[in-house]
Amino acid sequence: MAAPDLLFSVRNNFHIGAYQATINSSTNLPNLSPDEAIEKDSLVYRSYIAQSSYELVISEIDSSAATPLQAVKLLALYLSDPGNKEGTISSLHEWLSDPAIGNNPILRTVAGIIYMHEQDYNEALKHTHAGGTMELHALNVQIFLKMHRSDYAEKQLRIMQQIDEDHTLTQLANAWINLSVGGSKIQEAYLIFQDFSEKYQMTSLILNGKAVCSMHMGNFDEAESLLLEALNKDTKDPETLANMVVCCLHLGKPSSRYLSQLKLSQADHMLVKRVSTGEEAFDRAVQTVA
User: Which residues belong to the signal peptide in this entry (predicted)?
Assistant: First the structure.
């Protein structure tokens, strides 16, 4: 009989975007092995990173901490100091090249996340493609979808389904692929997020998932309601703000406030870059006819 998974709640809360619940559920866990304790701490610190509490993570993880926690600290440094990205990536590359620690799954996960932020998807895959954890497989799905290779993403999903079809990350990966494929698959994606909303606490991740499905199906009023609920949970969440901009445009409502908030919270967001490129092109066009 398999031993109980002491970190199930911590891990599952993290995967659905319930970051404060991840932190809260990590306390008073008995009889954790050293590896389990490190995994727990890494999830807690990544939850603080998701809440933009970068300095807390940087200050609490010192040079004596285990490699996985050092990797999480590197992620906090990367996200907190855009001006020093090159230095952070240089350190990451050095660690990944070290045969003693380079294959650590949490380090490889952090590498995948950072290189995804850099939009260097081939480099990300160098470190994530071998899998080893459900999170690495799910990260592969995200990377392949960013590369517009839903065929490879579906292969990763099949691997995840063989390991654990009911795993939260397997269900999420299935929903992401369904959204990417579109058509009749949108309804299937919506049902996955709906199932999550009935089983777990409502998070920005779940609300945004349902909202994006609703927009694909033309239900913009429902999407707006879901996104407003998500904003009540986190007024600065970039994905909620970006989806709100798109939703408002379809409803014929003002979107400038949400776009301004998005520029302030995440200036390098893809939507912000696209809007800036469009505005620059428009200005150039105006100048040519002025």
Answer: none
* Per-residue pLDDT reduced to its tens digit, 25-47: 999 888 899 999 999 999 999 99
**C-alpha torsion 130→76→12→215, nearest 10:** -90
pTM of the model: 0.89
For residue range 61-104, list pLDDT tens digits in order.
Answer: 999 999 999 999 999 999 998 788 899 999 999 999 999 898 99
* 124 to 25, 74, 82: CA distances (angstroms): 31, 16, 19
What is the token pair recorded at 29? 């866990």
Angle at 113 between CA 109 and CA 114, to 5 degrees: 115
Span between the terminal Cα atoms of the chain, in Å: 78
**Dihedral of alpha carbons 135, 141, 142, 144, sign:** positive
Burial of 34 (0-12, 13-18, 19+ CB in 10 A): exposed
CA 63/CA 17 separation, integer angstroms: 28
